[in-house]
Amino acid sequence: MITSGKGGVGKTTVCANLGVYLSRLGFRVAMLDVDIGLNNLDVVMGMEKNVVFDITDVVSGKCRVRQALIEDYSYPSLYLLPSSHSYASSKITGEHIKNITDIIDHSFDYILIDCPAGVEAGFHRAVYPANEAIVVVTPHISSLRDADKVLSILSKYQIENKYLVINRMRGDLLLNGEMLSLESIMKSMNIPLVGVIPEDDSVGKMSSNGRILLDFESARAFTLLAENIHNGSRKIFDCTYKYRGVLGFFKRNIKKHV
Ligand SMILES: Nc1ncnc2c1ncn2[C@@H]1O[C@H](COP(=O)(O)OP(=O)(O)OP(=O)(O)O)[C@@H](O)[C@H]1O
Ligand SMILES: [Mg+2]
Description:
The protein has 258 residues and is of the alpha/beta class. The chain has 12 helices and 8 strands. It has helices spanning 11-24, 41-44, 55-59, 65-68, 94-104, 121-127, 141-154, 171-175, 182-189, 201-208, 217-231, 245-257; strands spanning 2-3, 29-33, 70-71, 78-81, 110-114, 132-137, 161-169, 193-198. Helix 1 packs across helix 11 (217-231) and helix 5 runs parallel beside helix 6 (121-127).
């Protein structure tokens, strides 16, 4: 599952990109949008128009899981189970989601569950079938606090591994000492860091132009994240590289004054 506690920190973005980059590494990936009532993943993936059935149709028995899974033809073996626009979401339970993951488990190398914000019913529904959790934070105290709450709740579930992804990191602010450092974030979260994703305007573009972009700065960061998740390596993207040296110094200062 991809979770955070705090809303808007980049769960759906991380889920979509991780799905894309794991599939590019040759794995069969299913992404489940469990943010019921607020379909986001299909929009970010540019697959909204292809939705025929959604997760509520599966749960209510209107269709089989296979019929609701949409294949993303741009990437090999990448599938999405969309959430619904509207539904009395309380009717969907963690057991329902677990039934779905049990049915498709043998067909996929990875099943990514995009979790809603908060730690209420939607969170518990998403965590129930999960055996690993990626906790997404931004380098802000409020995000770390909420993630900390999530970690303590996760300890009550059978989650084998918990991983940290720091999203929206600003290399210029890091070098200027104006943003929480990686070390301080890692220390306060105390779970293995598997990815650092830079603040990158192109990430937003992918949702508005309908497709995920592959040739932007964070592409390297997402590739490293997918590799770390798969092979246990811990290669972390250096967000500060373009702000180092004389040229970098000017870039940093220009950015500061824009
Ligand atoms: N690294 C990034 N650089 C720039 N923009 C980003 C980055 N990550 C996410 N965003 C933007 O932040 C916004 C929120 O991201 P996203 O929807 O992935 O968050 P979320 O945690 O899933 O939100 P919610 O809690 O509402 O489900 C989006 O507009 C997205 O494009
Ligand atoms: Mg989301």
